[in-house]
Description:
This protein is mainly β. The chain has strands at about 1-5, 10, 15-25, 35-40, 45-55, 60, 70-75, 80-85, 90-100, 105, 110-115.
Amino acid sequence: VQLQESGPGLVKPWQTLSLTCAVSGGSIATAYHSWNWIRQPPGKGLEWIGRITGSGYLYYEASLKSRTSISKDTSKNQFTLQLTSLTPEDTAVYYCFHKTPAVDFDWGQGTQVTVSQ
């Protein structure tokens, strides 16, 4: 399974970030598989953002839940992250990844998002 993130590299404060992860080599509708977003701010560790399962169940990191929305488009085999009310603290490399029931992982290459005027 291959994943490819896309979206704007630069976003202004208080705007909404929208990132898309295009998936090939597997269906995002497959049961018991999950499709995740995670990020790594500069100089910090990985921070999980949330996931959507093949069946459409949603789970979000508690600290980001009020600003996060994840959805999927089965016809395009892609899933999307929206993060609202951005601040410079949201500057990070954003990754999408796939987790199988056997706890195998496939990762996108990551996309840099900078929040700045």
